[in-house]
Amino acid sequence: MKPYIFKRIGLLFSAGLLGCVSLACQKPAVNPTLPETLPSSVSDRSSVSDRSSDSDRSSVSPSSWFEEIQTTGISFKFSSGRSDGEFAIIESLGGGVGVIDYDLDGRPDLLFAGGGILAEKTVTSRPCGLFRNLGDWRFEEVTQTAGASADLCFTHGVFPADLDNDGFDDVAISGYGGVQILHNQGDGTFSPLPLLVTHPESPWSSSLAWADFDRDGVLDLYVTHYVNWSWKHHPSCAGVGVTREVCAPREFAPVGDAIFFGDGMGGFRREDHEVGLLETGKGLGVVAGDVDMDGDADIYVANDTTDNFLYINDGTGHFQESAVLAGVAGDERGVSTGSMGTFVFDANQDGRPDIWTVNFEREVFALYRNEGLGLFTHISRTAGLANIGGDFVGFGTVAIDYDQDGDLDLVVANGHVSYASPHSPFKQLPLLLENDRRRFARIRPSNDYFANGHSGRGLASADLDGDGVLDLVFSHLEEQVSILRGHCKAKGNLIRLRLIGTASNRSAIGSVVHLSEKRIVMHNGGGSYLSSSDPTLWLTALSPSSQQKIHVVWPSGKESDYVVSNVVGELTIIEPSSP
Fold first, then answer.
1. H helix count then E strand count, the chain
2. Would you say 171 and 162 are in contact if contact means Cβ atoms under 8 Å apart?
């Protein structure tokens, strides 16, 4: 068992601690001593960086909320195989990005899926790219030295989590041929675990979601599969005005998803129809979280041209598919859509998790409001989301409070799958959608990235420079990745919360945090599209009270309460040992 290591932590709540704590903002120690065991006291080191003063960000126009940073040292493009001229549907999926502090130095690092090539009717891989965060917006590539190339398969998605509860995040990487899992050795390197062949005939995985579905304290892995494409099922399709185009998913049969139940030591047991999974989906996005608020991890799958899935967990890792009954299978008329990225969050701050899904062009992006009792209402039009128009093909998406006013806003990466669509361009503008708790309004920043089209696919968020403001990472098809620095200062007390499970999985995936204002913030598995954001939970406390109550519901079923006062900084809470 490797030691638990903490760096740059503002507050640490030990097991069973309940009380009021104030945090002074000070520069963190450069090289704090690493404890051998979980500390039982409260540290006074703040993670708020001294690189940007409050006055720098006290008044920032929405048009300047994000700035693309060109000098990070990251140079990486996803290889789709388009240049090989096959017009294969595998070209259209793209690749994502995973945020992972793989070396536990307190700075989020970035791992990008590499894709592959399709020359001579052969699917071959291209290495992934791991970039270590050196601070001050400088990164260095460490792919080979860290053993993170993951080049057994044509790769798509990157999903970090601590699969063996040893304190170091491992990584699952989806793709054509199976799921590759890199085990973090704890010394800055990874070692590969045996390849997960996720389907006996069509092991083409897209998005993944970690969660403890059977509540045994160990993470399990939900695997979405797309379609049964192979060189034996590679039709030639024409487009509008062109003789060759990538074939639509309707030309292919669906492939059933699977769940791999973990044993905590790197081994997995595959289940599908035995636990209630259907075989009719064409999955691209997935998120695992407690949708019905009964204490276990449910699953929402965004399918392409088939009904989306909502799997309700019975608490033992067996599921009832309920999307049609719940009202989340398709659009407002119940028609199936081309869904890609997805997210579960409390959009209207009523204490219930809502479901957000981005779709194909000429389809309204879907926001399903949770009415309770397992029922949802499609509210995209009343929420203003139909006003963005039908020109976009949405992929990566995150719900973050990017204007730091206490509610979660939306960001979407867009880009077409057809090279010559008559309806909208191949490269498309990304979207910022500001939440006012009733409606969403599109914000149009004037900077170069949001003002220009991109072949957008993956999207993740993290505070890359430790300044207390979330930044964005976009990945694209055959286009350099983009790193955007956030520039918006908190309007209330900002709490950056990290949860550590003990009886629960150590990543604490599946936790729900309740705030004084009757809001919830969820630590879900999966979400976005082929991508994973930093697991830190961002809480903006807007209450005029000097104290903020935090109630944590852990995946194990334990509940714990904390009271903090005048907090602007980073907190880490360890799951209590007692109920």
1. 3, 41
2. no
